[in-house]
Amino acid sequence: MYVRLFVLMVLVAFSYYAGVSPNTRNHGFNTVVAYSLLVFGPLLYVLPTYEAFRSRQPKRLTIALLNIFLGWTVVGWVAALVMAVKKPEVALPDGEESGYFDSELLVRGFSIIPCPKCGEKVRDDAVKCKHCGTSLTPAN
């Protein structure tokens, strides 16, 4: 992401300065580079939207609207870029475990037991092992 941002910023700056240089009319290459601003400028402008869709952000439509309608303000563009590169926070529903730490499960009020077949940790109120599929409740 940062490489794309850097390359586009350099290309936009180079195109702009090639267009405002006094000898643009004398050199055909400077004219071509100056007109390339018409391509690189919009690409830089919609970079936050591209990054949001590329990383499949949950709020990518919000980021796209913010970028398109408020990106012309530098603050809106930077806000859209920050939202696009920020990692999405995963909110767990109440009663669900994240599976990371035993202490986290204890804080949430769960206790864990090892599966009798595979030995992986499962909740004590589990009906079936999520790892091997073994039934954990005794058959009546």
What topology emerges from the helices and strands here?
Elements: H1 2-20, H2 28-35, H3 37-45, H4 47-54, H5 60-70, H6 74-85, H7 102-107, E1 112-114, E2 121-123
Antiparallel strand pairs: 1-2
Characterization of this structure:
- This protein has 140 residues and is mainly alpha-helical.
- The protein folds into 2 domains: 84 residues, no CATH class; 50 residues, no CATH class.
- It contains 7 helices and 2 strands, in the order αααααααββ.
- A two-stranded antiparallel sheet has the order 1-2.
- Helix 4 runs antiparallel to helix 5 and helix 4 runs parallel beside helix 6.
- The protein starts with a helix and ends in a 17-residue tail after the last strand.
- The mean pLDDT is 81.
Index terms:
140 residues; mainly alpha; two-stranded antiparallel sheet
Strand coverage percent: under 5%
Total tally of structural domains: 2
Percent in helix: 40-55%
Q: What is the N-to-C order of secondary-structure elements (H for helix, E for strand)?
A: HHHHHHHEE
Oligomer: single chain
Continuous helix count: 7
Strand order of the largest sheet: 1-2
The biggest beta sheet, please?
2 strands, antiparallel
Class inferred from helices and paired strands: mainly alpha
Short description:
With about 140 residues, this protein is mainly α. It has 7 helices and 2 strands, in the order H-H-H-H-H-H-H-E-E.
